[in-house]
Design a protein that fits this description.
Pfam families: Acetyltransf_CG
Number of helices: 2
Radius of gyration: 13 Å
CATH topology: Aminopeptidase
Largest sheet: 5 strands, mixed
CATH superfamily: Gcn5-related N-acetyltransferase (GNAT)
Domain N-acetyltransferase: 1-94, 3-91
Strand content: 35-45%
Shape: globular
Number of strands: 5
GO molecular function: acyltransferase activity, transferring groups other than amino-acyl groups
Number of domains: 1
InterPro entries: Acyl_CoA_acyltransferase, Gcn5-rel_NAT, GNAT_dom, GNAT_YJDJ
CATH architecture: 3-Layer(aba) Sandwich
Length: 94
Amino acid sequence: MYEVKKGTQSFYIGEAEDQWSATITYVYSGENRITVEHTYVSEALNGQGVGKLLLKALTDWARAENLKITPECSYAKAQMEKNSEYHDLIFEEA
């Protein structure tokens, strides 16, 4: 299993935040809200569930921090909409 590390505004797998093999990035986009911008998994790690592992780390952290998520990244958006375990985290415009 791969170790997911928390970066400044990312979660990643790799030696350091600037030397990753896979990453999911976000920005703060309002009070108690983040926007997932990008998910990238290197070819070497493709097909091993690494994207899901990164998303799980990010959503666990967001839940612990009471943050809602706007998933702009197509991968994060598809996974969050498909899996009911993430529905409570999706930011809905009032």
